[in-house]
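Submission checklist for the structure archive. All mandatory fields must be present; incomplete records are returned to the submitter.

[x] Identifier: Nucleotidyltransferase family protein
[x] Organism: Cohnella suwonensis
[x] Residue count: 182
[x] Sequence attached
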Amino acid sequence: MSDKRLLEIMTGMPDLMKDLEAVRSLGLPQWTIAAGYVRNRVWDTLHGYAEQTALNDVDVLFYDLSDLEESTEKSFEQRLRELVPEYRWSVKNQARMHSRNGEAPYASVEEAMRGWPETATAVGISLTDDGRENRIVSPYGLEDLFGLAVRQSPGFRDRNAFLRRVREKKWLEVWPKLRLLE
């Protein structure tokens, strides 16, 4: 049920297909648009907001062991800025992010997302290679996202960093129906 509801909400976004097609055109393996792009839209909808909450950036994740250069990610960001200039794109190869996070290597995008601070943020959407179908990546499911629950992910160990992030992003002010779960 939640997968269907998520797709209903996301496909109601006027620019969703343009954004997904832009990322798909890069030919990235295991790609997904994730984090605030999905989370904010769902929370906006569940709060009845007519206007979308502004995004700081649009996170694109992919997984490619054959090219671990940050410069490659930057070139993908530049290409996306040319295709969809209204966003600040952030493209990260999850095959190299373990070193930045001080963790063991990740085996996939989904595994990398397990280490994100909140369960409701660890949600992404993409297209199949032929562009005909949406795919959802959600290692912790969609219950917290739709339950308006801000919960620390089991794979994120720093409670203070989690709480600081929630406070600095002012989520409980922007979306007052949210519940911070201890």
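[x] Structure attached
Curator remark: The chain has a mean pLDDT of 95. The longest helix spans residues 70-83.
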